[in-house]
Amino acid sequence: MRKFLLSVLMTVVCSMSFAANIAVGYCDGQVATASKYNVKGKGLVSAAVRFTPEVLSRYVGNEIRGVNAALVSVKYCDSLVVWVRESLDGENLAKGLIKRGGEQLPQSGWNAVTLDKGVAIEAGKTYYIGFTYAQRYNDATVSVVGAPISETTFIKKGATAAWEDISADGVGSIEALVGGDNMPQVDASLIDAVGIQPTPGVLNITTTIQNRGQVDLTDYDLTFSSEGYSYTYTASTLVASGSKAAVSSVLYDVPEGVGFEKNLTVTLSRVAGGEDETPDDNSIVVGVKVKRNVVVEEFTGTGCGWCPRGLVGMDLLHETYGLGFVGIAIHQYNSSDPMYPARYKNIGLNAAPSCLIDRDFECDPYYGTTESDRHILVDFQNEMDKGAFAMVDVDATWDNPNDPSGVVATIKVTPQANVAGAQLGIVLLADSLTGTSSAWKQSNYYTQYSSSQLPADLAMFGSGGSLGQSTFFWNFNDVAINTYYEGGKYEMDLGYLAKGDVKTVEYQLPFPTKEPLRSALKLNCIAVAAFLVDNSGKIVNAGKCYVSETDGIRDNSIMHEGNLREVARYTLDGRMISTPQKGVNVVRLSDGSTIKVLVK
After folding, report:
1. Are 155 and 99 a contacting pair, CB within 8 Å?
2. Strand (E) or helix (H) holding 378
3. C-alpha gyration radius of the chain
4. Model confidence over 41-58: pLDDT tens digits?
5. Paired residues of 268 in beta bridges
6. How far does CA 115 lie from the centroid of its chain?
7. Each residue of 559-596: b (16+ CB within 10 Å) or e?
8. Are the C-beta atoms of residues 526 and 407 closer than 8 Å to each other?
């Protein structure tokens, strides 16, 4: 069975204080926003969760004093009875009731209900903890969340119906409220530790701590150790009794290989307020990956009337994630598009607008995979959160600093794991492309809708909006204007890359010569993107670098002339920042251009 997850939450109700009790369960405190378990008509519906001896082992000698029961809906709920049993159809060892019109009434979300008597927790014994509610009409109330755990969650649709095992759908939002004289005072567990390496020698680590004891954690040490390396971080992030918290720490000057070929362990090495009573779960290996920059290849074109939403979606990713977003707009929808590329690899996109994320899955560049407004942000973040096992660093310089006709790209690939059949794609990109002829106008089908019918960030394209015409001018960003192409291949063969086998390549990408595209290029809006592809055809990681008008870095006090303004600022590793930080910052201007500035 998959390792269970304890949920620990503090709950207080009017009828009885649960301040000394801890909620224990599998659901991690989550409640579903909707329920698939619709039950028709009037009657009784029950749900239960099976608590194994393993789940309750640390609380032997204490009592189950109440039940936390989560309800998705209470629209037609008259009463809620919680109970503890030794089998699904067994006698109640204890029960509790709340009802409409009572001192405590059923409510959507969590309901903490007192039992009429405590149930002693005995070693080796399994308990079924659940609830029965009476409904007046059709409703869907039972909450199931998270990953499945076999033989854990059950439902009974009617007083005489049989119990159904619904564990394949997830775990029930039902928790035991446990208390007693033998509750652990200091009992902390490290339940997860994830590290991302944004640059060599630096690790950003998030350690999740669960406090199963009755003493708040406010002063404690986390020690990070590996072969030839040790660092102790003193934390003050509050982990309240009966809760969990994510603690962030940054490690600098980390030796090469730590967290990869050398395991990195984090240990809760000190807790103010006493010794941990169960220290066996105070250490965990940190899962370390390098920062993932995500490639979004979009199929688009000026002749596509639905592509305005793609323009918004791609610009939204651009502004939100900075250099962490490696956007590539492929204007192949219509050959009359002035940004139509001379060549780009056929990646299987035919409908516009559409995009591939890391060549792993296809979705809409605005609605994402779920067809909901701006869901592309969720899809992108999910991909970024995967991390990566290879770093891709990109540097770019002009081929001729005095009179540039192209860019020389230098790419360094540092694999932290073996990569079979590795290939490298290199693309020259341009931002803020626009013109004055009709060829530059973007088609727009959204005029058939009024602005009020559209999402807020698409309203400008609707009838009555600022761009509510059949065509409009736009500043196009992330446009692919050239790509690696040698011997009929769009990716450079790197072969087998062994872990730690650093590969450096150099490649020259000339500007396109076709007009009107060539005249529309702005030197302060040119970038190079490079991405590593494995033998499955998926992108492993990527990097992006802008080339400035001079040496790539400006003084922070130097800005463009005219009415340009700063709209976003990022660190070199792509993190958005609200104020200038010492060192090199990447600044995006209101015309779409991006410059590097030096903050002293």
Report:
1. no
2. helix 376-384
3. 29
4. 899 999 999 999 999 998
5. 222
6. 39
7. ebeeeeeeebbbbbbbbeeeeeeeeebbbbbebbbbbb
8. yes
Q: Which of 153, 190, 147 is CA-nearest to residue 174?
A: 153
pLDDT per position as a tens digit, 205-224:
999 999 988 889 999 999 99
pTM of model > 0.70: no
**Is 575's pLDDT higher than 80?**
no
Largest CA distance in the chain: 88
CB 416 within 8 A of CB 499: yes
DSSP string for 384-437: HTT-BSEEEEEEEEESSTTS-SEEEEEEEEEESS-EEEEEEEEEEEE-SB--SS
Whole-angstrom distance, CA of residue 600 vs CA of residue 595: 16
Question: What pLDDT is stored for residue 558 in this prediction?
Answer: 33
Q: Is pLDDT above 70 for 13? A: no
Q: In the 3-class helix/strand/coil scheme, how is 87-104 assigned residue by residue?
A: CCCCCCCEEEEEECCCCC
Q: Which two tokens stand for residue 245?
A: 């918290």
Which has the closest alpha carbon to 479: 328, 368, 263? Answer: 328
Mean pLDDT of 396-400: 93
Work out the average pLDDT over 460-488.
96
Phi first, then psi, for residue 76 (nearest 5°) are -120, 25
| Tokens coding 36 | 């698939």
Q: At what angle do helices 308-321 and 376-384 cross, to 10 degrees?
A: 40
Q: Length of the chain, please? A: 600
| Phi, psi of 189, deg, nearest 5 | -130, 140
The first and second tokens of residue 462, run together, are 């609707």
Confidence of residue 560 (pLDDT cuts 50, 70, 90): very low
Provide the token pair at 522.
């702005």
CA-based end-to-end distance of the chain: 55
Query: What is the per-residue pLDDT for 559?
Result: 37
- Between strands 442-443 and 229-235, the pairing is unpaired
Pull the structure tokens for residue 96. 């509790």
* Closest CA relative to residue 329, chosen from 339, 321, 338, 319: 339
28 pLDDT band, cuts 50/70/90, is confident
Q: Which pLDDT value is given to residue 591?
A: 56
Which helix (H) or strand (E) segment is 519 a member of? helix 517-520
pLDDT tens-digit series, residues 273-299: 888 888 999 999 999 988 999 999 999
Answer yes or no: is pLDDT of 138 > 60: yes
| CB count in 10 Å sphere of residue 519 | 8
Whether the pLDDT of residue 555 is over 80: the answer is: no
State how far the Cα of 194 lies from the Cα of 523, in Å rounded to an integer. Answer: 39
**Residue 477 one-letter amino acid:** N
Residue 311 has pLDDT above 60, yes or no: yes
CA–CA separation, 317 and 598 (whole Å) = 24
Q: Which of 464, 525, 511 is nearest to 483 (CA)?
A: 511
Is the four-CA dihedral 240, 241, 246, 248 of positive or negative sign? positive
Which amino acid belongs to residue 115?
L
Nearest to 544 by CA among 316, 296, 298: 296
CA distance 418 to 492: 18
19 pLDDT more than 70: no
pLDDT tops 60 at residue 566: yes
- CA distances to 7, 69, 102, 133, 378 from 73, in Å: 22, 12, 18, 11, 26
